[in-house]
Specification:
By secondary structure, the protein is α+β, with helices and mostly antiparallel strands. The chain folds into 3 domains: 170 residues, Trna Endonuclease, Chain: A, domain 1; 206 residues, no CATH class; 89 residues, no CATH class. Helix content is 36%, strand content 17%. It is built from 15 helices and 14 strands. The N and C termini lie far apart (81 Å). The relative contact order is 0.07.
Length: 507
């Protein structure tokens, strides 16, 4: 039996990492090897980059000539299909090491000269904004090649989702992927979480408190950029735990031009003293709204839920509270009515005790609920107790668990048939029986021959008596419908052979 102090043998060990260079080299080799060895994980990483389906090979520290010097990117990934080879250069940074513009542009030159697909960079830097690379390179370098970036947090999320939720068909490959996950989770691997709001955080927060912050002040851009990175990191963490697609919710203009979102965030910070964002979570009842109010020192997380479209107002309120039976009483519920710009607002505990307390304008139709939770905001720029980052992450995780995953959208019932054998017109008191004179004329009319009854309808299989369902009420309703439309019975019945009818016998 193993002793407590014995260290288990690992496929990718963290022991023996002597410094940043060793951590970078080991992380690169481990990642590229697992991409080639675990088919599903490799496809999840490189297919979004444009790689075709096919056998994958990977190499490390491959030398290339650029002018009169030699450069060696950390890795190369290749895959072939249909006689065509797809090649992507890879540059990796771990720990606090940052990507350099000169180095990135040199590798883009290598990719262009060798007609490769492009360059993939991997580091702990999270894209500052969706679609924006952490390094601002000369756009002319991207005319014939692509530049991609993945954070270690994103790669870890892909690995966990593939292993835990989507699955790996081969047991040995699944174990290999587990070893990569275990390695990346270890602090010595150099794959770090988002952990710092940057040096400008404290001065900007203090300027907000003093009411002196201006759009052009030093540090505003940095804080807004780090806020977007924090939201993206929060989305990755949530996706890792849920096995679902989670990302930032952007407008069309923001998605097309990241500068639009950046400007909006700056305006919100300066004019409203708050940082805002929305997370889009697959199959959730709605997007998750996050607001960090720097002046009030509060984090507010909320979600909007459409009220049922039928029932009394109290019934609609009870529909919501039943789904929040385990949620904290301190949640705030706002109710919005059609045609009103204001809302009524109560704590969940009060609404549980008296659902009518949320209804201030009974004649108006209740159309929307807003559920919100407010928590204290950490002030420190780093993670840990009293840190801003942890206060945001715990607010999002806690609200999702207590509220978002509990609430389902309202769905209307399917239209209902009348109860019993009556028709809808009969239940409404409408007499649709033809006048007696019309009935007398119908008795003298010649019954038409139904050419559609030449053959009995085919059945997919024979069934026994135990498999037969008797729709008695439906048959009675159909008979009553035919009595209204043919009270004289001149059209005959299917399957009958009478002297007074010309309908053919199908027996």
């Amino acid at each position: 039996m193993a002793e407590d102090h014995w260290q288990a043998a690992r496929l990718i060990p963290t022991s023996g990492i002597s410094g940043p260079d060793e951590a970078e080299r080991r992380a690169t080799s481990a990642l590229l090897a697992v991409i080639t060895a675990v088919r599903e994980f490799g496809a999840a990483v490189i297919r979004p980059l444009g790689a075709p389906a096919g056998p994958v090979e990977a190499f490390i520290e491959v030398p290339f000539k650029v002018g009169d010097r030699t450069v060696s990117p950390d890795g190369v990934i290749q895959t072939s299909r249909g006689g065509k080879t797809w090649t992507m250069l890879v540059e990796v940074k771990t720990g606090t090491m940052s990507l350099g513009k000169e180095q990135v542009e040199a590798y883009l030159d290598v990719a262009r000269e060798n007609e490769f697909a492009g360059l993939l960079t991997i580091s702990n830097d999270i894209e500052p904004e969706p679609g924006v690379h952490p390094v601002a390179v000369d756009r002319r370098k991207l005319r014939k090649v692509s530049l991609w970036h993945l954070s270690w947090a994103e790669l870890l999320t892909v690995a966990v989702q593939q292993r835990v939720f989507r699955g790996v068909s081969d047991p040995d490959q699944a174990w290999i992927l587990e070893e990569l996950i275990r390695y990346l989770e270890h602090p010595k691997s150099g794959a770090l979480d988002f952990a710092d709001m940057g040096p400008a955080w404290v001065p900007v927060r203090e300027a907000v408190s003093a009411g002196t912050l201006r759009p052009g002040d030093k540090g505003v851009d940095e804080v807004v950029t780090h806020w977007d990175q924090l939201l993206r990191f929060a989305a990755l963490r949530l996706a890792r735990e849920l096995g679902a697609d989670v990302g930032l919710l952007l407008s069309r203009k923001e998605a097309a031009d990241p500068r639009v979102r950046h400007a909006a965030l700056i305006d919100s910070l300066v004019s409203e003293h708050s940082l805002r964002g929305q997370l889009r979570i697959a199959d959730a009842v709605g997007p998750l709204n996050v607001i960090a109010d720097l002046r009030a020192g509060r984090i507010t997380v909320s979600i909007d839920v459409f009220a049922p479209k039928e029932g009394r107002a109290t019934t609609r309120v009870n529909w919501l509270t039943r789904q929040l039976r385990d949620a904290p009483d301190a949640l705030r519920i706002d109710a919005f009515c059609t045609g009103s710009r204001t809302s009524s607002s109560k704590l969940l505990g009060e609404v549980r005790d008296d659902p009518s307390s949320l209804i201030t304008d009974p004649p108006r139709e209740l159309r929307l609920f807003r559920i919100a939770a407010t928590t204290p905001m950490g002030t420190k720029r780093n993670t840990g107790r009293g840190g801003f980052i942890d206060s945001v992450l715990t607010s999002i995780d806690g609200f999702y668990g207590a509220v978002v995953q509990q609430v389902r959208p309202w769905a209307a019932k399917a239209p209902q048939l009348p109860k019993g054998p009556q028709l809808a017109t009969e239940q409404a008191g409408i007499d649709v029986t033809p006048p007696p004179g019309d009935v007398a004329e119908d008795r003298n009319a010649e019954a038409p021959v139904d050419d559609f009854y030449d053959e009995a309808p085919p059945y997919s299989q024979e069934v026994g008596d135990q498999d037969v369902v008797n729709w008695a009420q439906a048959e009675q309703r159909l008979e009553r419908e035919r009595q209204h439309s043919d009270p004289a019975g001149t059209l005959g019945k299917r399957g009958e052979d009478t002297e007074d009818s010309q309908v053919p016998n199908l027996e």
